[in-house]
């Protein structure tokens, strides 16, 4: 199947209240929202608006969600693509795709560009290059660097990129004027898990008085994505048992299923 060019969303509905926990990260991206909404306020004083920020953290912790919320809060279009899409591309396509993406975003600025799994394109150059198959990836990375360097101070496009492997990234990406800010998006602690449960329980038909402290306690090590899964799975289990509301036992059964799935996944990986 052909990889998609990139995705463009003009009316993003996600806002900060959809992102539970992550107070520090939200505070940091709040500034990016301000830049997008009111760039003159900053440039009038001679300041340079940052071009990019790297969202760093384990899978499923809400990096994509947070990037979308920036676009939703600032009411700007959200252009996104995944670094792993480039891996399958023919020679020359990756770089021209990056060019197209930046051109479209500039035409519609202010805008957010979001690059998920940037490590797939942004791995340090000149390593693991025995097959020569990394040339295309390097071309794509070089084009990305070129585009970011080419931004004028008034371009008003901010590039957010996500990775769970900041350590493998080419240092050139982190240089001043590129992804020179790193924002950590960690696994939720118990209090944050409670908040994430509250977000994902809201749309469910459930029994009164479900104890979210208890659910948070039952789910150490779970990511936000895992918790969203638990809530959905609990609703499916309740329906399968012909219940009219999701109850505590359904959540416990869902937690067991997700734990089982996580264990299996870890076994395959290691
Ligand atoms: P990956 O590294 O795997 O791409 P990610 O960090 O980008 O993961 P998201 O795709 O943003 O994670 O999260 C997946 C889903 O998990 C979200 O759409 C949301 O439903 C839920 N989720 C994750 N984190 C949170 C959070 N902090 N608050 C509310 N929901 C969350």
TrEMBL record:
It is found in: Cell membrane. This is ATP-dependent zinc metalloprotease FtsH. The lineage of its organism: Bacteria, Pseudomonadati, Bacteroidota, Flavobacteriia, Flavobacteriales. In the N-terminal section; belongs to the AAA ATPase family. In the C-terminal section; belongs to the peptidase M41 family. Acts as a processive, ATP-dependent zinc metallopeptidase for both cytoplasmic and membrane proteins. Plays a role in the quality control of integral membrane proteins. It comes from Flavobacterium piscinae. Homohexamer. ATP binds at residues 57-64. Residues 49-189 form the AAA+ ATPase domain.
């Amino acid at each position: 199947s052909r990889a998609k060019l990139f995705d463009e969303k003009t009316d993003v509905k996600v806002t900060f209240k959809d992102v539970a926990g992550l107070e520090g990260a939200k505070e940091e991206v709040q500034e990016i929202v301000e830049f997008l909404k009111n760039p003159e306020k900053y440039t009038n004083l001679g300041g340079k608006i940052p071009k990019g920020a790297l969202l760093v953290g384990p899978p499923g912790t809400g990096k994509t969600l947070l990037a979308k919320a920036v676009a939703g809060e600032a009411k700007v279009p959200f252009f996104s693509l995944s670094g792993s899409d480039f891996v399958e591309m023919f020679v020359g396509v990756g770089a021209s795709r990056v060019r197209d993406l930046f051109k479209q975003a500039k035409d519609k600025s202010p805008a957010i560009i979001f690059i998920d799994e940037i490590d797939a394109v942004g791995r340090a150059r000149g390593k693991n290059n025995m097959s020569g198959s990394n040339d295309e990836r390097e071309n794509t990375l070089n084009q990305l660097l070129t585009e970011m360097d080419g931004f004028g101070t008034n371009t008003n496009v901010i590039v957010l990129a996500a990775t769970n492997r900041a350590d493998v990234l080419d240092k050139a990406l982190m240089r001043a004027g590129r992804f020179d800010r790193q924002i950590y998006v960690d696994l939720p602690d118990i209090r944050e898990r409670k908040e994430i449960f509250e977000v994902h329980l809201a749309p469910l038909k459930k029994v009164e008085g479900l104890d979210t402290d208890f659910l948070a306690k039952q789910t150490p090590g779970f990511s936000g994505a895992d918790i969203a899964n638990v809530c959905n799975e609990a609703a499916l289990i309740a329906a399968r048992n012909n219940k009219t509301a999701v109850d505590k036992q359904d959540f416990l059964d869902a937690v067991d299923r997700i734990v089982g799935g996580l264990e299996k996944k870890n076994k395959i990986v290691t």
